[in-house]
Amino acid sequence: MSNALTIKEIPFAGVNLKVIAGHPEHDILFIAKQVADTAGLKNGSHAISRFTKQGGKSETFLKISDLQTNYHEMIDSVVDGWKVKPTSYLFTESQTYNMLLRGHALQSEAFRKWVTEEVSLLS
């Protein structure tokens, strides 16, 4: 794994979402729980669990523990107010969009619009 991993902030609805950049296989990785909570999903942990189980064997889901040991410690120190553990899921852009497209919370619509119209411009 590369040592070039960095955390960037992307502002959304008054929250700075933390994304991980520099992974050798993915442009950015979202912290799934932060995305679910910010998007207004009632039970973000349940939504993530259901989504990862539905992906089954056809899709790989990364966790913080899949990154370098010292890197998940860095994430713990910079993600203010969000419970990020070594077992926390990291979602690719595609996985993030797929999870949010299934959400029905009012904030999910604003989040989907933001992701599809603004985040793609940051790349």
Itemize the secondary structure elements and their pairings.
Layout: E1 6-12, E2 15-21, E3 28-31, H1 32-38, H2 44-55, E4 62-63, H3 69-78, E5 89-92, H4 93-101, H5 106-122
Antiparallel strand pairs: 1-2, 2-3, 3-5, 4-5
Helix pairs in contact: 1-2
Question: Which descriptors would you attach to this protein?
Answer:
123 residues, alpha+beta, five-stranded antiparallel β-sheet, globular
Number of strands: 5
Largest sheet: 5 strands, antiparallel
Return residue spans where pLDDT drops below 50 for at least 5 consecutive residues. none
Helix-strand makeup class: alpha+beta
Total number of helices: 5
Can you give the mean pLDDT?
75
The rough form would be described as globular
Gyration radius from CA atoms, angstroms: 14 Å
In the sheet with the most strands, the strands line up as: 1-2-3-5-4
Write the element-wise H/E pattern from the N-terminal end onward. EEEHHEHEHH
- Our estimate of the beta-strand percent is 15-25%
- Helix fraction by DSSP (H/I, runs of at least 4): 40-55%
| Distance between the amino and carboxyl termini | 21 Å
